[in-house]
Amino acid sequence: MNEMPEAPPNKRKELNKIIMKFAKPTPGKATWQVVNTFTPYLLLWVTAIIIFKNEYPLWIGWLAILAAAPFLVRIFIIFHDCCHSSFFKSKWANKWMGYLAGILVYTPFTDWGKAHISHHSTAGNLDKRGVGDIWTLTVEEYIAAPRLKRITYRVFRNPFFLFGCGPTFVFLILQRFSQTGIQHKGRLSVYITNLAVLLLLLLGGATIGYKTYLLIQLPIIIISATLGLWLFYVQHQYEEVYWARNDVRDSIKAALEGSSYYKLPKIAQWFSGNIGLHHIHHLNPSIPNYNLQACHNEIQTLHPVNPIGVRKSFKSLFIHLWDENTGKLISFKAMRLIRKSRREK
Length: 345
What we know:
345 residues, mainly alpha
């Protein structure tokens, strides 16, 4: 992604004019997205139940589960938009849909939403890391860290840990507890979500049996959580990502360079609710997901942003440390070369 100069005031005004055209919820689009997302998800659940209860071949049931998981990712995007109050015009509609979708994705609406809004205000800010983001150390911080912290960081950043244990831990365990510093309403949303998840488990056990319920529910939530975590990871973890200290951070660059334009195949873009256009989302989180593509198309003429393709995105698995000297994320191997060159001097 090429670094762009700071936008002059007149360009910022033009940019804001474009953004405001799309930062308006459309009831028809929102309603249709709910229908074309929740309906097939529920139908696939019913299909999986029929398959398992009638003891059809397991691979047929797994096809239904694999098909349902991307729809749950799309449900999470609806939940995410509701946290920003951008999906519907009505505050109450966003709240009720947010709670409903949050229960299905095992994520408390208010608690997660408050942390996520903090993430937006601190994205790309080296001095305000740690809220709603992937743990990232600078080269200097890593070199100066105690041995135990360096080992912990390496384990955490290992793809097998991050995308193996990570999704299950975050969505099945971590989301069951309120985040530090979240006030009463946030904690209440955790209790409500946990109670609803428990009631769904009890209902599933009483109707289709615990074994059938868990055989369907656990793979769907784990697969969708893994897909979702990968999308979130790629959004802010790539070689040319923008990070800056608080006193020089530019909000436009933090959005357009600190959040990726992850260009996905059309079917993957549909299931992920256009979230690959993350640079547009960070320009203004009030833009609903169904308007992101149209907004991007207009903004490209004013501020072109280079996309990250699927093949290039896998490179992000091997870069772990922010190098303030080069302004890039680098690998542990590159960091070792930096340390070696310093010793030789």
